[in-house]
Amino acid sequence: MQIQRTRQPRLHRNGFSKIELLVVLFVIALLMLAVIMPMGPSSHGPARKLVCLNNMRNLGLATVNFSSGNNSELPLLVDPYLQISTEDEPNANASYDDLTWCTTLLPFLDNVGFRQRWDATANLAADTNTNSDAIKQLAALNAIRFPVFSCPSDESATDQGALSYVVNVGYVTANYNKTGVGYNASTGIGHHPAGDGGLDGDPSTTDDIPVKYASGVFWRPFTSRMSLDFISEGDGLAQTLMLSENLQAGNWADQDTGSLGFGIDMQGVYPSGSTSLKLPAGFDLKNKTTSTDSRIGSNLKAKKGQAWRPSSNHPGGSVNVIFCDGSGKSLAPEIDPAIYARLLTPAGQRYGQAEIEKGAF
């Protein structure tokens, strides 16, 4: 018996046509674009803001660690340190070894060796007999850039001696920055509770000096020194600002108040002799007496050291802040002016300010 086998036709496999290949490549390109897009410029803002907040957390932790070893006391805004100038013993070089709050914190930021070199050089530069070589060497040290002091969104972050962060100097008045560089020990003028005329800006009244002390956290030398204990017993560590950021901050070694701190211009806001921190009705952070604006992000074209409010280049103009308990968050420029003003005071409730409700900021 003969069996016939039917031969199956061979199937020919054709490759992709050019059109199909183009479609596949187009789909792959779209998928790759979808992956790459989040890595583009639009994502840099949030990432840089997070780096900024981490830097500030490190500064806040360093401040708390300093306080722990100093009976709860906080660093001075500027510490005259060893060499001072008085009427009896004038020393034109005395301010060379003054410590800004930044210099004070360097050993707590893993920069013990640098601080030792700085101390040795500054001591020589501050001698009554002018030491030109030491002064030149100190200037070179002051130009060193520490990444922890600068925000990556700050256009001046890579400058020599860059500083993006500022500390809470509270309610300031007309003479807050009159000394320029350093604290004038002979005249007493400068940013401390009495030196700029107290709360009302009037040097002839003194009852308002303790009230002024309760309006801010970082001061130049005074009869008493601000502490975390004082703040904890007052408005509370979690409701008192320690640090913020400012595009108009100076350098970390600058000694003028406007380069190192942020505050609110209260010149003319409180009447002469006032002993209350209660905010007037309609308070909006815009000072009608001096024409200054203390709102977050105002006056962005100001020169370095000339605008003491917080500011940043973060999306929406929001600013990172650190509170005195070490916690951090972001504040929007649209924050209620009265709430923002109360966040600066370590003991405002003792002098008439209303308590801030939870979730209000």
Automatic annotation (TrEMBL):
InterPro entries: DUF1559. The chain crosses the membrane at residues 21-40. Keywords: Membrane, Transmembrane, Transmembrane helix. The keyword Transferase does not apply. It holds the Pfam family SBP_bac_10. Residues 47-337 form the DUF1559 domain. PANTHER family: GENERAL SECRETION PATHWAY PROTEIN G, TYPE II SECRETION SYSTEM PROTEIN H. This is DUF1559 domain-containing protein. It comes from Gimesia algae.
